[in-house]
Amino acid sequence: MNIEDAAYRVAHDYPGGVPALAARMGVRSAAVLQNKLNPSQIQNHLTLREAFDITAMTGDPRIVDTFASVIGRITVKLPQIGDLSDQALLDQAGKMISGMGSAFSEFTKRYEDGEICLNDLIVLTAMGHDLIQCVMEWIKRIEAIHVASAVRRGDTEATADSKSIRRVV
């Protein structure tokens, strides 16, 4: 999907469509936003700020996913962290290891014939995405434990540093 198509689909799939989204964004005219979203319209163009606002207001990742795919990257939804216990962290680590074993076993079974059909690709991709999500949750749990530990120690610098540790791979 190209970026124009992604923006068009996100806006049109929003409940109430472009008119509702335009009103929420504070755009004076839904027709102006509609023109900006129309890939064949050459006079009006969606700004980067508007693309950001559309993504933030809709919660729909298709625009940012399209940006990422152009440069060979992916986006991953970060999990919400609840329980920060040591047991929860161990449980998450076990889930990661178990998930990796299941995914590898499934791959081995599906690749027995030396081929990967579309259904195989769909199943294995979903398993891979689940694994990535699991790893991200594990990382978020470790970060949250670090921040909680720093707060207990009164180390405000450590809580700020934990945000800078994250890197894009």
Summary of the model, kept short:
This is Phage regulatory CII family protein. Helix content is 70%, strand content 0%. With 169 residues, it is mainly α.
Detailed description of the structure:
With 169 residues, this protein is mainly α. The chain folds into two domains: 68 residues; 80 residues. The longest helix has 36 residues. The protein is flat, with a radius of gyration of 21 Å. It comes from Cupriavidus basilensis. InterPro entries: Phage_186_CII-like.
Write out key terms for the chains shown.
mainly alpha, 169 residues, 2 domains, single chain, 8 helices
By secondary-structure content and strand pairing, the structural class works out as: mainly alpha
Beta-strand level of the residues, as a percent range? under 5%
What share of residues is helical? over 70%
Instruction: Sum up the overall morphology in one term.
Output: flat
Q: How many DSSP helices?
A: 8
Distance between the termini: 23 Å
Global Rg:
21 Å
Main sheet summary: none
Number of strands: 0
Give helix and strand order, one letter per element, not per position: HHHHHHHH
